[in-house]
Amino acid sequence: MSTSTNKQSLKGMLWTWAALTVIGVIIGLYAPAWIMPKSMSNNMHLTILTMVVFTVAAAPVAAGVYATALFALTRWTHKGNDVPSAGPAVRENAMVVTTWLVVSTLLTVFLLIWGLGALAVDNGSTGKNPLVVDVTGQQWVWSFSYPGTHVSSPDLYLPLNREVEFRVTALDVTHGFWIANMGVQVDANVGTITTIHTTPDKLGTFDIRCTQFCGLNHAFMVTEGHVLTAQQFTSWLASQPQRA
Amino acid sequence: MTTTLEQAKTAAIPQGGGLHRRLNMATAMIGGIVFASLFWYLAHHFLDATSRTYSDEVAGSLTIGWIVGFWLGIGAFVAPLRWLIGRDNTRADDLYLAGQGQGTSRYWKFTTDHKVVGVQYIIMTMVLLGAGGILAMAIRTELIVPGNHFVNQQVYNGFIAVHGMLMILALIVAVAGPWGNFVVPIMCGARDMAFPRLNALSLWTLVGAAGLLLTTLAVGSLTMGWVVLEPIADQAGVGMDFFAMAIIVFTVSTTVAGVNTICTILTMRTKGMTLARLPIFVWGAIIAAALGLYAFPYFSLVEAQTLMDRTFSTSFFVANAGGTGWLQANLFWLMGHPEVYVILLPAVAALFEIAAVMSRKPVFSYRSAVAGMTGLAGLSILVWAHHMFTTGWAPTLGGPFMLTTELISIPTGLFFLVLIGTLWRGNIWMKLPTIWMFGFIANFIIAGVTGIYLSDIPLDDQLHGTMFVTAHFHYVFVGSVLFGAVSALAFWYPKVTGRFLNEFMGRISFWLTFIGVQVTFLAMFASGLRGMPRRYSSYAFIFEHTNLMTTIGAYIIMAGMLVLLGAVITSWNKGEPAGPNPWHANSLEWMVPTPVPLENFEVLPVITEDPYNYGEELVRS
Hints:
The complex is a heterodimer.
Chain A: H1 3-35, H2 42-75, E1 77-78, H3 94-123, E2 131-138, E3 141-146, E4 151-153, E5 156-159, E6 164-170, E7 175-179, E8 184-188, E9 194-198, E10 204-210, E11 222-228, H4 230-239
Parallel strand pairs in A: 2-6, 5-11
Antiparallel strand pairs in A: 2-3, 3-4, 6-9, 7-8, 7-10, 10-11
Helix pairs in contact in A: 1-2, 2-3
Chain B: H1 4-10, H2 25-46, H3 54-74, H4 78-84, H5 91-97, H6 114-142, H7 153-174, H8 178-182, H9 184-188, H10 196-219, H11 239-267, H12 280-311, H13 325-358, H14 366-380, H15 398-407, H16 409-423, E1 428-429, H17 432-455, H18 457-463, H19 467-497, H20 503-530, H21 544-574
């Protein structure tokens, strides 16, 4: 292969790489918000943002591999049944390996820093008067009770813009408590209480689905949840039958 | 050109063999059934029928009877027993055991020749993939539309457990089984594995385990997923006892096979075959075997504890009696994550080998390849808790496990560097192995990128337990490992049979499978992102379009796999003759005649350089 064709093919490869990167970035910017459920909490905003950032960060890397593979397929292939002549015997290139390692390490460090930062925000409690909800899973229903009120409900009701602390447990086997619109998930374990926090910031209705396989009717362990205004929530709470 | 089978027919059957002359797979099955019945009868009569765990005790006894009878019936311990009574095997006995002159019948016997074991592993992989594939099609058929129409939920739950386990077994052996046995000893310049009888034992133990696993569906309700989730596994029927015992028996098989592979590579290399001159696939085989030796004991331990909870009323995992499901999850994933790399590494290493041969270049940065595989194996034992980010176990360890998990990107990145670097400016010979290798590269990128999302805890809190995870690991297992396994099959098939795998059918199969994988699993990603959890037997209407697409894609994959099966069967005796070295490669397995004679080499070769010198002048890079 002469040097000039090699330069040409490298130039073409760069263009392919740039084009694929742009496609990847566009997918990264628009696909998550388009496919994922409507965001109804601060955690879910962060979830979608992380999805976007990671996709955009991964796009040039994936595009680089695809561009090279496509170029290999179009320029460097040998068709037919006769054996091709030997290629250049390049066994090692310290520059390339070092660059590759440095770039992948930097990307990993970036992902890690982002992840640790997001983790701190995601799991943190603001501590400002959170509403505590006791969540209990059993085969194959959820029940929600509001400590201090004697109210227990098969559906979940939450007030808008107030932090909620879910204290999750199970009676029989492990269940998975997940609000897809709020980006929070934790297992409900027998004999243990696990805790997650979120702050709903949109009015509306959402589904709570079980994410941990729990037997026969696992697929039907779905419950509705509602985000109400603070006033609606107070009047809903007052209208519920009080349990001893 | 004579095929392996024709050559085997013409050689004389040696005198000797003793009891082995009468034992084969049929006697093994009979032995298994007789002993299972005997153990069932004894347990049935002598155990306390009023015990809460009575049925599990009986089932456990029966499964022990099955494997003992199966081992006796195949003749696994004939030679050691003869040795115990003072009669060692003669040369004629050993030749008989190696299958000399026995034609196709040697494939159904306790045969020690590593090449026969390799072919048996090919058959075993296809049987397991076929059975798991039928279950996959049943699952996807059930999920065409919302609601339960095709099978009921109880049966469906059994399907997802057994589909998962069968496919895991199939992929653990898919590359390491056939090629770790068939080509690794020849690549090292050895006449056979270090322990030929253990080699046969590992294969037949796997067959016994698979037999148990296949019966679980008929025996009882399996409500635990393939990971045997606790405490719900405690609710499962007696099929769970079969399932756990099948896994314990399987880990015996992998342990025996792993020790054998490591000993062969460390001690049986011919003169001059230094570690730095080893074909890169041998490195993949030994690293995967070593990792398996670390990982699989956890598997048998956790299943033994499950069995004890069910039969002896212990409470390792029973929360209401003081145990915890978190213990089960920890032990399981201590095995479960390394196991992914036990599956992946042989496929990746085979692709390094294939990339070098087909692009007529040395493996680019051999050191990076070895370092990447070793690094991945080392890291994999430190990442298990990323499967437990949402369980609530040890939230403070989330950060450290996120760190170790994301570090995985670095050795994985090296794999891409080595593959791309090897292809770079090569003269890439576009034959079947190469085509499937390109499929691997395309799919493995998607598998890797989606893995990054899942390693991040805030994102995992959203995606864990959903179809997104299912789609991610299917891109790893189907999109990557299966493509690597088919590439390896197409590459070494001529060495086994003397004939090429049918190129035309292989290409049809590639396009069907490749398109099928994208349709199936991209749609599955969308289901997960929209909010559909895993292991669902039915779903809400908002998921119906993506599920329909996934089912259509799954049928396309099935069509692709059936075409491949057709190619493997028809090419075996009728394929285009290939000669001893169809790819003009330099490693030792291509230097011996095809069919490879018993004990491989007339004179053991002496090695003076690695196998990647294709005679091109060195160019400045």
